[in-house]
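Page 47, continued from p. 46.
Same chain as before, 124 aa.
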Amino acid sequence: MSLPENEQRLAVETEHAPPDWPTIVSHAVDGLGRIVRAEIGLFELALRSGIEAQVTRAAMLMAALAAGILGAGFLLTALVLLIHLYCGVWWITFAVTGALCMLIALAAILWSRRIAGRLIIVTK
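Result:
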């Protein structure tokens, strides 16, 4: 079964016709532009969700910090009142409580340095 004469001539002409480079380049640039826009959209979506997660985490940490500070204040108040029962003098009570807080802070600093020193040694 052969093709009609017009179709044979068209097939021969398109077979030997030079490529239409402007159209090919236009399609390639258009496709590349679509890929770049899609990648930018994906990056923006990932960045937005990451920032939202970090903001939520920061808000939760701030709430936990506020609750911890409030709890520490109540514990210190209870300690002052407890020591006042035995000493009877307020300034001694506050001095003892302050000294205990400073000792705890010093111990926490030394402990954190020790842990940080171990982490540096392990990573080397």
